[in-house]
């Protein structure tokens, strides 16, 4: 396994003046304001041990991050979490972001998005709201988030349209709700969403813990794709539908985050700077912190942002592959999770010696029924692990002390 604690030498890792000449500036800043969240989604991408990283930046520190990122060249800004609205300074941050010239997006579960806050956010200059649903049915929405929030989300969707916001509706897809894709699209149309993001589950964080339950079958995906294609033909003008086939079902990986350290700069609640959402899970990668280092230095000079930038870090088969410019070797976090080495080719690629791992996972999913009955049966065998503070503390303790970990899985109430 590659030792991530040792910096690698490459052109992008040189002093800032050299690096700035070859490395483009970040375009997209994701401000993860908090890990606090009233929901407990089974597929949450937040780190398993988030309770160990919950000392949040102050308002003043976030304002500095926004100013530094804008000065670097970032133009798009997402406020996310956790649930960003648990902080009462979102309006202040949006106002400053708007003044700086960012295009701003609030990524929310809807909990806390009152009429008052919608009005204040509009006045502060917020451009866009992304509202998440877990399903088109109350039962599954509420089960998967372990909350009763379905009706609240419906009310929030109506209210945010009333305040004149464009809406992206987001729904994470997996084995349980793929058969509902037509109903999810109908719900988006009925609520007036301009965009619908049908985001197939990425198996990091909590979703990785629940992979056996959430992994869809090929048949489910093909049926959902056909439904999406039909609605794109009939309703594409009214609502733009995004649907991307998940990595595990492809033979070539995707160009993850458009390249490591290429366009995306995330900042976690505690100020850790992230080259990708899941970078905290890579062992040996010391994440620079905005409290200790200017953002410019983090982007151009830090080891973490240079570690997998460009092509120099690649091993075989990527190093000599004629497709490496297209996908940049795929996702580093997926490579680590499935092969134990983040510098390996993403095993989604069928040129990877570890591709069989992915094939086996997909085959295992197919061996169950493609119906919800099958998913429910799988979840009964190994109940779902919800994202909550108690479970996170166990992961955090296990990370500190390997014998202290435990399990806290819940049986689903999903009906077939
Ligand atoms: S995925 Fe669910 S639990 Fe995780 S931050 Fe989003 S709303 Fe909260
Ligand atoms: S071998 Fe590496 S670079 Fe080539 S297609 Fe596969 S993942 Fe991409």
Automatic annotation (TrEMBL):
GO biological process terms held by the UniProt record: pyrroloquinoline quinone biosynthetic process
Signal peptide coordinates: none
Binding site for [4Fe-4S] cluster: 37, 41, 44
Cofactor note: Binds 1 [4Fe-4S] cluster. The cluster is coordinated with 3 cysteines and an exchangeable S-adenosyl-L-methionine.
Alphabetized Pfam families for the sequence: Radical_SAM, SPASM
Top-level enzyme category: oxidoreductase
Catalytic activity: [PQQ precursor protein] + S-adenosyl-L-methionine = E-Y cross-linked-[PQQ precursor protein] + 5'-deoxyadenosine + L-methionine + H(+)
Family note: Belongs to the radical SAM superfamily. PqqE family.
Assembly mode: Interacts with PqqD. The interaction is necessary for activity of PqqE.
Protein's recorded name: PqqA peptide cyclase
């Amino acid at each position: 396994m590659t030792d991530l604690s040792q910096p690698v030498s490459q052109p992008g890792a040189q002093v800032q003046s050299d690096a700035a000449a070859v490395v483009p500036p970040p375009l997209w800043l994701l401000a993860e304001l908090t890990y606090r969240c009233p929901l407990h989604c089974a597929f949450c991408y937040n780190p398993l041990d988030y309770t160990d990283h919950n000392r949040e930046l102050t308002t003043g520190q976030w304002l500095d991050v926004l100013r530094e990122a804008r000065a670097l060249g970032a133009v798009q800004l997402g406020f996310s979490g956790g649930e960003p609205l648990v902080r009462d300074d979102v309006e202040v941050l949006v106002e400053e972001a708007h003044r700086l010239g960012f295009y701003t997006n609030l990524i929310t579960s809807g909990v806390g998005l009152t009429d008052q806050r919608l009005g204040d956010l509009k006045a502060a200059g917020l451009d866009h709201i992304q509202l998440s649903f877990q399903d088109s049915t109350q039962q599954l929405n509420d089960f998967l988030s372990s909350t009763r929030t379905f009706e609240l989300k419906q009310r929030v969707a109506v209210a945010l349209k009333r305040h004149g916001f464009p809406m992206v509706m987001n729904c994470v897809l997996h084995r349980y709700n793929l058969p509902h894709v037509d109903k999810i699209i109908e719900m988006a149309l009925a609520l007036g969403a301009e965009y619908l993001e049908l985001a197939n589950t990425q198996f990091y964080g909590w979703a990785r813990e629940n992979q056996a339950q959430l992994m869809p079958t090929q048949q489910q995906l093909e049926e959902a794709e056909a439904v999406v294609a039909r609605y794109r033909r009939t309703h594409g003008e009214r609502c733009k539908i995004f649907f991307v086939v998940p990595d595990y079902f492809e033979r070539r990986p995707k160009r993850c985050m458009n390249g490591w350290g290429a366009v995306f700069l995330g900042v976690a609640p505690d100020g850790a700077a992230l080259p990708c959402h899941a970078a905290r899970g890579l062992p040996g990668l010391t994440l620079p912190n905005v409290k200790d280092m200017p953002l410019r230095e983090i982007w151009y000079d830090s080891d973490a942002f240079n570690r997998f930038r460009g092509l120099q870090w690649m091993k075989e088969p990527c190093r000599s592959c004629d497709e490496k410019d297209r996908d940049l070797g795929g996702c580093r976090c997926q490579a680590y999770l499935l092969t134990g080495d983040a510098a390996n080719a993403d095993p989604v690629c069928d040129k990877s010696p570890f591709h069989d791992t992915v094939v086996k996972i997909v085959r295992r999913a197919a061996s169950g029924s493609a119906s919800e009955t099958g998913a429910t049966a799988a979840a009964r065998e190994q109940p779902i692990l919800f994202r909550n503070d108690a479970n996170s503390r166990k992961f955090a303790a296990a990370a500190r002390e390997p014998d202290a970990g435990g399990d806290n899985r819940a049986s689903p109430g999903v009906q077939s």
